[in-house]
Amino acid sequence: MGRLHPFSILALGGSSTCSTVSINHRLFPPNPNYLSSSTPLSLSLIATRFSLSPVSAMDKQDDQDYALHSNLLQEFTAISTIDKAWLFNSHTGSASQAMFCVSQPNLLANKRKKSLVSATLLRQNDASLAFHWAPFPIEMCGVSAMLPSPSGSKLLIVRNPDTEGPCRFEIWTSSQLHKEFHIPQSNHGSVYTDEWFEGISWNSNETCVAYVAEEPSPAKPTFNDLGGYKKGGSPDKDCGTWKGQGEWEEDWGETYAGKRQPALFVIDIASGEVQAVKGIDKSLSVGQVVWAPPSTEGSKQYLVFVGWSFETRKFGIKYCYNRPCALYAVKAPPYDSKADEAEIHSTEDVHAVNLTQTISSAFFPRFSPDGKFLVFVSARSSVDSGAHSATDSLHRIDWPKDTKLYQSSKIHEVIPVVLSAEDGRFPGLYCSTVLNEPWLSDGHTLVIASIWHSSQVLLSVNVLSGEILRITPADSNFSWSLLTLDGDKILAVSSSPVDVPQIKYGAIVEKAANSKEWSWSNVSNPIFKCSDKVKSLISSLTFSVLKISVKDVSESLTKGASQPYEAIFVSSKTKKSDACDPLIVILHGGPHSVSLSSFSKPLAYLSSLGYSLLIVNYRGSLGFGEEALQSLPGKVGSQDVNDVLTAIDHVIKLGLASPSKIAVLGGSHGGFLTTHLIGQAPEKFVAAAARNPVCNLALMVGTTDIPDWCYVETYGTKGREKFTEAPSAEDLTLFYGKSPIAHLSKVKTPTLFLLGAQDLRVPISTGLQYARALREKGVQVKVIVFPNDVHGMDRPQSDFESYLNIATWFNKYCK
Ligand SMILES: CC(=O)N[C@@H](C)C(=O)N[C@@H](C)C(=O)O
User: Fold this and answer.
1) Domain extents for the chain?
2) What pLDDT score does 162 carry?
3) Residue 221 CB coordination number (10 Å)
4) Strand, coil or helix: what is 769?
5) What share of the chain is helix, strand, coil (3-state, %, to 5)?
6) Contact call for residues 617 and 624 (beta carbons, < 8 A)
7) In 502-547, where does DSSP find H-type helix?
8) Candidates 1, 5, 16, 195: which one to mutate for ligand 1, based on the most atoms within 8 Å of Cβ?
9) Most CB contacts within 10 A, which of 402, 528, 670, 682?
10) ipTM above threshold 0.95
């Protein structure tokens, strides 16, 4: 459930980034698919290029610039990402094994290639660990998901069909393929492997796997060219029949277009029998299933899962934590034995029981190793305020031994929503994933990654006492993501905007009596290898995190909204002359997201070209407490715009940037800010680039999958009540007035637009309308449309062509 959306380009899990967190989607020796600069991509075939300046073919300048900059971009693109990792058998003897699931963009295939890299870990005499890496990675073709069993003796591989075929489940042992099952579409469609609904879970005795997959297709009417309708028929190509569309069904919007309802299934891995889980209301979309601990009574086994319901329609769910959801428990199959029938004596044996009725949001259910309690994260602030993402809380339910499922189980608050925190104090929980096994050896301390101002840090949380410790170094501005735990050992990844990711091994060391500390050592590895050129370029860069004081603090501002926000400043270590390097201001979307101090391939590429970067986490960003975040809804287009302008003035005053060489780049809400800035501060920017920007809320509201977002960000929390599918003229006037299009007449900055034609979140019409209007008034504009891209525009070729054009566009106007 990534909070670091595609346009928070420093995000840890996005495709444009390098280090990743485990649940999210996301070379080694010389890359065989390397494209040399003499093998130009057929760029005009990849994207439809609407040049709104009067040229039809690629102009000469572009041609030269592409040739000049594409080679370096390819070198950055080739850096791999770790998606997941597992450790095995470390409790026995001095050797254990690690397995890393790695991905790397493949430009020619326009896909991310996934591979597996293994290592043997040998404990040395001094208690340190030596990693011995397998000589090569193994490519994993067609693998949609993989999950080792709890004992590590079996590996489940899921292969989803490309089109209509069956879904394939394979069970591997250490030596061979043990079983293979083909699950027909009549059972279910593809297994969900997204970051939202995905849930695949082995039961404790490793006989069954529970998972989430698309429910089977509903029956569709069949027509023919004789009588018209063919009753109860199935289409038969030879008989002049065809399948109708049937009734349209709502889906969950952006990236879920055409996906059927996520439903729960269990496969028996001895027989291959698949059963749909019974007792779940048809209207619930389910995800994140886990097995409840075995009961002390009878043979009942329960599953716990997250259920999302909706009222009259489904809104977009991606990046939107404000969709109400609850944890449910339900009896697992099989249902057919006599013993089961005897046990089914109350309705809770048949129907899923809502375990979290008293809270508006509950997800990431995790049982403690002893099965005594269930922990979950809640985004109740987000649901209750309407902001699409906000400060999380963490909760615990004590789990009954006899699996009596009480709807009114007491929910203990482990980490409350933090409203505001003094500098240096825990600013609140912001987590986008929790490991399947997040526990340290005491069984009640979990390790979790959370955003803390502009960094992601690792926390240990004692879920019984509520004690929270920051376990990654407090004196560093690097960002960290969690790979896996092994007893009291942690594998993690750490990086900064100017340091490629590094695998870290963490262990607790005793300091003085009663004082323990986490110590982190580097794990040399082949995964994050990058070219010598990239190494040398980024070694000449440096970064810092700047505190920016709020301008115009007034009585009406909450304490949290009056505290400083942050900006990450990346620049060359050495000043080549008196003049400053040109500056690119980088703005994340959301708006309730964050740009992290982690390595980002595209941003490191831009800084390597000689730009300083000012990456602004304006108020409203995640990681700074709930009051600062909630200060933005209702004030978009003014408070956020002013925060960015203040940050720019700050670096100019410090002599870090020259006022005459500033460009701005942002996507989505960051594109809203980009286009607002060139309208509200027309003298300030010499060039701009906007990716799927929100330019006209009055147009967006009628076509986006999240029209409620337009209301909440425009009106503030009261926008939740004001929301209607039929906006009034008054609403539309306000939406227009708060949009960049209202300032269009003042714009003169040359602007590049990068637009995904399949974007359901910020439909292409808003960017195109604005670009055409700029063109009409004679502003330099270039538009590139990626016909098959959604909001994230993160397919390898689109990402590549986007950043190549951003670089050439800025070079044209800034240098
Ligand atoms: C909630 C949301 O999707 N808002 C969009 C307008 C936006 O800014 N999207 C972010 C998440 C993005 O960067 O894609």
Assistant:
1) 531-695+712-721+738-814, 697-711+722-737
2) 87
3) 16
4) helix
5) 20, 30, 50
6) yes
7) 532-539
8) 5
9) 670
10) yes
Burial of 686 (0-12, 13-18, 19+ CB in 10 A): buried
271-292: pLDDT as tens digits: 999 999 999 999 999 999 999 9
Of 762, 764, 794, the residue with max ligand 1 atoms within 8 A of its CB, to mutate for a pocket test, comes to 762
CA distance from start to end of the chain:
39
Before 334, cis peptide (omega within 30)?
Answer: yes
Annotated catalytic residue within 8, 479, 668, 798? 668
Question: Given the DSSP bridges, would you call strands 687-691 and 662-667 parallel, antiparallel or unpaired?
Answer: parallel
Contact between residue 774 and residue 688 where contact means Cβ atoms under 8 Å apart: no
Residue 100 CA to residue 205 CA, distance in Å, equals 25
Phi and psi angles of residue 720, each rounded to the nearest 5 degrees, phi first? -60, -45
Amino acid at 479: S
CA distance 706 to 692: 15
**Residue 238 pLDDT exceeds 70:** no
**If 0-12 CB within 10 Å is exposed, 13-18 middle and 19+ buried, where does residue 736 land?**
middle
Listed in sequence order, the residues at least 6 apart from 179 whose beta carbon sits closer than 8 Å to its beta carbon are 169, 170, 171, 269, 270, 272
791: annotated active-site residue: yes
Fold of 531-695+712-721+738-814: Rossmann fold (3.40.50)
Counted residue by residue, the chain has a size of 815
Q: Cα(197) to centroid of ligand 1, in Å?
A: 19
User: Is 644 within 8 Å of 550 (Cβ atoms)?
Assistant: no
626: three-class secondary structure by DSSP: helix
Tell me which H or E stretch contains 546: strand 541-548
Specify whether the CB–CB gap between 603 and 497 falls below 8 A: yes
Return the CA Rg of the chain: 27
Secondary structure of residue 701 in the 3-state scheme? coil
| 54 or 716: which leads in pLDDT | 716
**Cα dist. 309→315, 326, 354, 686 in Å?**
11, 9, 12, 47
- Contact of 659 with 652, CB cutoff 8 Å: yes
CA distances from 1 to 147, 319, 608 (A): 18, 7, 31
Q: Whose CA is nearest to atom 2 of ligand 1?
A: 590
Convert the pLDDT of each residue in 281-320 to its tens digit. 999 999 999 999 987 666 789 999 999 998 889 999 999 9
Q: What angle do CA 303, 459, 380 make, to 5 degrees?
A: 55
